[in-house]
Amino acid sequence: MQVSSTPLFRWRALRTGALVATLSLGSAATAAAQNVPNREAAIEIRKRFMMDLDTLQSKFLALAEAFPADKYAWRPSAGVRSVGEAFMHVASEYYVYAPMSYGAERSPVIPRGQDSFAKFESQSTKADALKHLKEGFAYMKKSIDGLDPAAISGTKKIFGGDRTIIESSFIMAGDLHEHLGQLIAYARANNIKPPWSK
Hints:
Blueprint: H1 7-25, H2 28-32, H3 39-66, H4 83-95, H5 97-100, H6 114-122, H7 126-145, H8 149-152, E1 156-158, E2 161-163, H9 165-189
Antiparallel strand pairs: 1-2
Helix pairs in contact: 1-3, 3-7, 3-9, 4-6, 4-7, 4-9
């Protein structure tokens, strides 16, 4: 997984990392507990994770709006996701992997199996992308915000291993930041300036 190397992303990653380290360590007693977040730390980590995803979502939506509908089929080369498929992939992560990163249920919008993901991503018009970015984000937000703090503290079976939400938050946010970078590159290749860019 490649993470964006822009100064803003590096700063956010360092700031988030410092916050998570501070919250997870707390005192010598909690450090001895192997950095497993307690209730208060889990609530704060979730809050910061959702703030980061709110920022990502606003940028995904701004880019989705900025791309003309006729550019949604554009792809940088054969065998690589098109603009529309990349946006739909982000939406699929909102429906499935982002909720799962906190131990919440995945949405039934995308049935299990790679064929289901491929079918979902292939429905990649501008209207499809905007609809599912909004609906997928709403599903993910409701799912994660609705979890009892007891369900997000400690260690859980997530992504095939025993993980804390510290680990799963970094995995999920890092992946979504990577897709934002991908879509910014797609925009620039098509002479589309990201709306928030000065």
